[in-house]
Structure formats: C-alpha cells, structure tokens
Amino acid sequence: MSFYFGVANYIVHKGEVRKDFYPYFYVIGEGRPPKLPGVKSVEDTDFEPWEFDGLTYSPRRGKAYRVYADVPALVPQLREKYWKYGFKTSQSNVPYGYRASADLDGGTIPQDIGEALKNALSVREKILAFDVEVVGDRVYIGYTVGDDVVITSEPYDLAVEDVDAFVGFNSWSFDVKYLKPLAVTEFAFETPWGVKPHIDLFVIADSRAASAFGKVESGSSLYEVALQVGALPEGMGVREVMRHKLKRAQLHKMSEREIKEYLALDVKITYLLGLKWYRLLKAIGTILGVSPMAQVQLLDKGTTALMAEVAFHKELERVGRVYVERSREMEFEGGDKTKSTAPGVYENVAEYDFSAMYPTTYTLYRVGPDNIYECGNGFEVVFTGGMRRRICFGDDSPVWRIMKRFFESRQATKKLKDVFPEADQAVKILANSAYGGFARTAGVGIVNEYAAAFIFQFTERIFESLWEWLKQNGAEPIYGDTDSVYIKAGVSVPLNEYVKKFGELYEMKLEGVWKKMVLLMKKDGGVAEKSYIKTDGERVVIKGGKLKPHDLPRGLRFYAWRDIIKQWLDGAEDLDKLLTHWVVTAPYEEIFVEKSSSLRDIFRNNEGKYKSRLHHMSDIPILATLALRHGGEVLVSENSITAGRKTEKVPSTMILDSLFIPVETREGKQYVIYIDGRSYKVDVKLEYGKKGDAYAAHVVVSRREMGEYSARQYALKYVLRHNAVESLRSLKKLGILERFV
C-alpha cells in the first residue's frame, strides 16, 4: 500500500518512507527536451507518441521522453515551460501519490475481476476511527477499532493496534495538529507497525465523486453525510442525530462526562462511515491496483474518471504508446433526454430501466478515443455551431479494451452483490466514469469530443426511438429520463426485443410498479423536467431540484417531508394544512433551516476561484451566526475570524453550522437565527473587501430576541411559499388533485 507522505517527493511504501520515487511525466518532441531548472533527469523511452489529429489519436513524429521533477509541485510549472518551448506533454495530470501507488503496488487490472474482489473483500479490514474535541484548554481524543470507544488525551494511545488505516472526518486540517508527534504529516501516522495512512472522510464527502459514494444531497457535516449514506449506530434515528448535532455549540457548557458521551457517538459514526467507504475504496483499489489512501488523495483534486484514465495509460504503455494530453475545445449538441405526457398524478405506473446504457453503448460499438474514422454510412455527431461529421469506430483500441473489461466484469459482480455490495458498486463506478474524461470540462488528459458526442447522442437516439415506439404500440408512456421509462402498468410490450435492434447487449428490466407517480407543472404549463414523485404506498421517492428538501427546515428535510407528501397523496387533507400542523407542533429546533459549510466553500466557487459576491441562503446565515456569537460584528476571511481585537486562525475546511429562517425585507437581509435554545431576529449588513491577500466579508448584525410563537409564524410563512411547496400546489390549480383536498 503506497501513498504520498506529504513532504517533498516522499512516498510511504509497505509502511516505510521512501525518498527515491520522483514525480514524472512525458515530454514529446522531435528533439531532446532541455533539462530545465527543477528537472532531476530526462530519460529516453521506446514509447511511440500519439496525438489528437482533429478526429482521433494517431501516431505523430518525434520521441517521448520521461522527465523527472525534483518535487511534485513543479510538474504543472514544468509542463507550461515545455509547452512554451514547443514540446507536447503526457500524463502531467496524474497526481503524484496516485502515480506512486499505481507503479509500486502493481497498477494492473486482475484477469478475473470478480474473483479478485471476492478474495479481497472476504478479508476483514481493520480501521481505527478517531475524533478530537477541544474545549477550552482541554483536548479530548476519542478512538475505536469497532468495539468500545476509548477517550484519552495522549495521541500515542491511538497506536494501540496494527490497523490498515486511521480514519477521521475533516481531520487533515483540524485533528492532526492535536495528534503530533503520532501524526507526522496530515497523511501519515507513525506507529510501531510502520507508517500508516490517515484517510479524511470529509475529502470524499466534499469531492465531485461524492454521489458515487452515496451522498445525494448538499450538506457536509458528519451527521448529514452519515444520514444519507446510512452509517448510523443501530437503533439511532434521525431525530436523535439532529438533537446530538446541536450539542456541538454547547460543548463549553457541558460536564466532562457529557463531553465524552458526545465525542463517543462522533467516533462511532465516523467508524461506521469509514468502514463503509474504506471497503468501497478497497474494492476499487483491487480492480485498479492502487491503495485506498492514494484514491482519497486523488479525490481531493480530481474525479473517478482520472482513476480510469490512469488505467488507460498503463495499458497504453504496455502496448508501447503515450498519448499527448489536450484540453476540450469543442461543444457537442445534446438535450436533457427527458420525455413526458402532461403534469398530473398517474396511478399504477411500471418503471423500466436500461441496464448500464452508456457502458453497453461504448462496449458494443468499440468506442475509443483512438480508433475513430470518418465514414459515409456512420453515425452523424453534431457540434455547437452546426458542424457535423459521420464517424465509425475501428475494430480495436487499447483504451476500449479497458472500458470493455469494466463493463463485462459487472456480470460477475452482480452475482456477488448480496454478499459483497461494494464489489458491484466499485465496478459500476468505474464503468460509468471510464468515458467521462473524453469530455472533461477542465484540465488536460485523454480528451476526444467525438467519442463523447457519440455516446451521448447515440443513446439519445435510442431513447427517442423507444419513446415513439411505445406510443405507437399502445404502451401509454408517461415519463422518460435518459435510461428509464415509465408506462402504464399491465401493458404488455416486447421492450427487450425492441431495444436489441440497437445491439444484442441492450437490456431493459422492470424496476418496480408504483402506486402513484406525480409529474409537476412548469410555469408555461408543460412538465417540469427531472422533477417527480413516486410512491409504492410505503416508500416515497422524490427527484429533482424543484422538490428537494435541502433548504426546508431540518425536521422536514430529514424525515417529515416524505411523510407529509405520502399523507397528501393518500388523500388525508390539504397540503397547506399538513404543513401548518407540522410547523405548529414540531420540536422547536426542527423548524429552522440547517446549513453546514466550510469557510473555503463560502468564499470560493467550485473552480477554486474567489466569489464576487456571497450566496444568500448558502453563506450569509453562517456568517451572521458567527457575528451573533461574537457580539454582533466579525471580519471573516477564508482562514480567519476577527472579532474585536482577537483574530482566530481557522482551517479553510472547518465546518460551520447555522440554524435560521429567512425573512424577506426590502432594506437588506434578515433572518431568524437559533442559538443555544433561543432565537433572534437579525439584520445583516455586509461589506466585501480584502484582508491581506484574501477576500473577506465584514459582517455586522443588529439583533432582538424573539419568542417561539413569532419564530413559528416566520417558519410557516417561509415553508408555505417555498418553491417545492409551490410546485406541488401547482397541480391543484389544474384541478388534478381536487379529490385529495
């Protein structure tokens, strides 16, 4: 198991720190590249360079040289310099720690992926989960290896057993400073059994791959993530989680016994989440030949598509090639792939899904970035601006061979699903992300917009053709979305016989029959895309941003929203009455909207650039809560909070919480904010500027305490005018739901 140590060009390999693995990439040219400052060495290779020729990757003149850098941070700079000299580059986007693991741990895909996963996941992994709480000048360290939680103040106590990995949550930036000298870097713990990896689960939860790991909504706190992933202690319900989360703000008022109880539950939840995700990382690593820790270090900057791309590079090197990296230059046409009839409530609806639609397509049609050619009878891809080309794919491609293996291995892992669910999930992640790099929106890599356009536009043609065929054959299609269709239950149509006209591997399966399905109305009277409700009488599934409860009060968001929709669809009573009853009777702390965010996310956008202005619902309530806690005024930047004359340095990933109700006003931004069992109506004034080199916000609040009755009035007003509620209410305007009122 290899991973980046966190210093210079140091790598941990088999528990020991190596200082002789230097970062490298390839430089391609017709002459030998110069040894620039920061380059350790330049080596000849026998690899043949291939470059994008405007349609596909093909051989180019010149040689490929392996260039070693002194330290990882120099690679992007050296790449830019070689570009200026007229050279091309390859693999400069591969993260250092991930490359080291792929090279030192094997980096090869096993011959029998299913059997390899079965063997790997049959061995019980051993992780140690920990958490640190600091109350005044007291430091509490809690840890567990799956049994009882131990509370200590001595970091070395964590080295009690030989474990595969240490796991924490938001621990790279916060906890490690209280665990020295055990934590020799943020990535590594030095133990009697060697140097062990320290995995920060927050990195996964905050990454662009979070949805692949089961996170489906916004919110980055440990409890929000654990709720979504299902990593809660047995017998612990949603409301217990919500009550427990509120205790964080009260730690300074708690007794030592209460602090330890609070910390112990944090540790248990961290362990359950860590075990679930570590097994998935282990499964992915078994397929790709890389360590779980190297994957997390990659996800801190990249996506699972980059994991697949490194597998492509390994195969390309095996056949003697390197591919010149490039960035995306063209945009291809494509809609949202949704079809629908009319807004309303439909009863007895059958849901049919394509099995692995995109992976089936690239497998059947041998889609690769390097075997495309123009042909008169090929598939016509369309790009923005009207450019069109008919393309075909050759018989083979090294990249396609790897993609095909991911697809085919799902047949084996589906059989393991009941015993080893992580096996099937890992293969599904890789099969679905393998083609993602072809159309990457940022950075460089193996990019081919024609391959990406084919996959998207060909599946779009299948989807549209299927929809029309269903209408012509009396199947009464109700809704369709990318790789699924909903039709009237009980209608017998040969779906699989039809889709196999596009290829023998295409398959549709019945996912279930829904008692009711609700399609929402847009303002223009059409059907809202990708927003619907379906219920089988017990379970309620809600899809789409128009209905997501992420900015509804916490009690509605985490448990009551689906219950209320179910009662409403079952004809209990009017939606407004149900919501009013909930707001009036819910526990007081549950009527507030909950936001958890880091300072980095408040001040920077997804591309890492500073925001020009802060977002109303996402950022300002958290800053207003900070000001309220510090006497009414703070200066906040990405790395510090200044209140009065005191400046507190904080990690950019530190999670901050706020419970609030938005209040509309013409003069400025107002909220009802809940703190320590009390609520305050606050007016927020913001000024934007600079603090040193960092973007900062000067936050001033004026406040007045308000009673519970008034706060519930504000909560009710907010809930009843919420977009999700208005979307449901729109059906009533059509007279569709009169019988439910």
Q: Could you explain the architecture of this structure?
A:
The protein is α+β, with helices and mostly antiparallel strands. Helix content is 33%, strand content 28%. It contains 20 helices and 34 strands. The strands form 7 sheets. It has an 8-stranded antiparallel sheet, with helices on both faces. The chain has a 7-stranded mixed sheet with strand order 12-11-10-13-16-15-14. A hairpin with a 6-residue loop joins β1 and β2. The longest helix is centred in the middle third of the chain and has 33 residues. It is globular and about 75 Å long.
Oligomer: single chain
Strand order, sheet with most strands: 27-31-32-33-34-28-29-30
Straight-line distance between termini:
61 Å
What does the main sheet amount to? Answer: 8 strands, antiparallel
Layout: helices, strands, pairs:
Elements: E1 2-4, E2 11-13, E3 16-18, E4 24-29, E5 39-44, E6 48-52, E7 57-59, E8 63-69, H1 75-84, E9 88-90, H2 96-104, H3 113-122, E10 127-135, E11 138-144, E12 150-152, E13 165-168, E14 183-185, E15 188-191, E16 194-200, H4 201-205, H5 222-229, H6 238-246, H7 256-288, H8 292-299, H9 304-318, E17 321-323, E18 338-340, E19 344-354, H10 357-364, E20 372-382, E21 388-393, H11 398-416, H12 421-433, H13 449-472, E22 477-481, E23 484-488, H14 495-499, E24 508-521, E25 527-535, E26 540-543, H15 554-569, H16 575-585, E27 593-598, H17 599-603, H18 620-629, E28 633-637, E29 640-643, E30 646-649, E31 655-663, E32 669-675, E33 678-691, E34 694-706, H19 708-720, H20 723-733
Parallel strand pairs: 6-17, 10-13, 13-16
Antiparallel strand pairs: 1-2, 2-3, 4-8, 4-9, 5-8, 6-7, 10-11, 11-12, 14-15, 15-16, 18-22, 19-23, 19-24, 20-21, 22-23, 24-25, 25-26, 27-31, 28-29, 28-34, 29-30, 31-32, 32-33, 33-34
Helix pairs in contact: 2-8, 3-7, 3-11, 5-7, 7-8, 7-12, 9-11, 10-11, 10-13, 11-12, 15-16, 16-19
